[in-house]
Amino acid sequence: MFLYSHFLRSTYIRTYILSCLVMVSCYAQSTEKSTAANNATLAEYTAHYTVYRQGDKYGTAERMLSKTADNQYKLTFKTEASKYFYVINTEESSEFSYDDQQIEPIKYISKDERTFKKTKNQTIEFDHANHLVLGSDTAEQWSLALKANILDPLLVIEKLSHDLQKKEQHLEYFVYDDNSVKSYIFEYSGREKIKTPMGLVDTLKVSRVKTNSSRKTHFWLSVEHNFIPFRVEQEKEGKEVATLELKKLIIPAVS
């Protein structure tokens, strides 16, 4: 996977452009002011990105949040990337509920297709009634006890954005992924203005750090746009591995 959950997992150039991130009419390269999220609902959006690797365009990505029913949402993230004869296509989706300002995962699905490699699939279902997490991937099926405040791989950045809006200070999350529970720790780096197709944008910069690893993933989340990621960059040993830059943002008008 590429960025977000893909970037979060730090698998070299896996999408989440390459599992780990994110508006009113848009113009070709920009958007108008977003409507601030309130306590009862989340703001729907579609974010289009360009993926770069060492300064060269490597592919595209799309992240979309849509409401599907009362208190229920679906988050999707797709990437397409290619270099010469090597092609990577990934897709993730997360169904979740949002009630009383609490995000609760329901179902996660991912698919990773690459040239010369076997397609990887993963499904994670959250059985809240029986307090179980049921997972399956290309190789196996598994189940774990469902613990409170656990997320799926794609939902982490949405929860991070939500917590930053509430000025939360402790940015550590636990995620079910690949038959285990993993800790995602983010460090807050302060405010920073960045250049985008919409001009200068005021952002908060946070970084995911991993113990005993030279990999870091940096996120620039727009203060004016519900803390949607405008830039995501993965680095290894201080050098940029891949970057995702927002090029167009769409927020539906609120009726």
Explain this structure:
- The protein is mainly beta.
- It has one domain (5-250).
- It contains two helices and 17 strands.
- The longest helix has 11 residues, at 155-165.
- The N and C termini lie far apart (35 Å).
- Mean pLDDT is 83; it is low at 10-38.
Distinctive features:
255 residues; mainly beta; 15-stranded mixed beta sheet; two-stranded antiparallel sheet; 2 helices; globular
Task: Please render the helix and strand layout as text.
Blueprint: H1 5-9, E1 26-27, E2 30-31, E3 45-53, E4 56-69, E5 72-83, E6 86-99, E7 102-114, E8 120-127, E9 132-137, E10 141-145, E11 150-151, H2 155-165, E12 172-177, E13 180-196, E14 199-209, E15 215-222, E16 229-236, E17 239-250
Parallel strand pairs: 11-12
Antiparallel strand pairs: 1-2, 3-4, 3-17, 4-5, 5-6, 6-7, 7-8, 8-9, 9-10, 12-13, 13-14, 14-15, 15-16, 16-17
The secondary structure category is mainly beta
The radius of gyration computed from the alpha-carbon positions, rounded to a whole number of angstroms, is 17 Å
Order of helices and strands: HEEEEEEEEEEEHEEEEEE
Terminal-residue CA separation: 35 Å
Strand-residue proportion: over 45%
Overall pLDDT, averaged?
A: 83
Main sheet record: 15 strands, mixed
Kindly summarize this structure in a few lines.
This protein has 255 residues and is mostly beta strands.
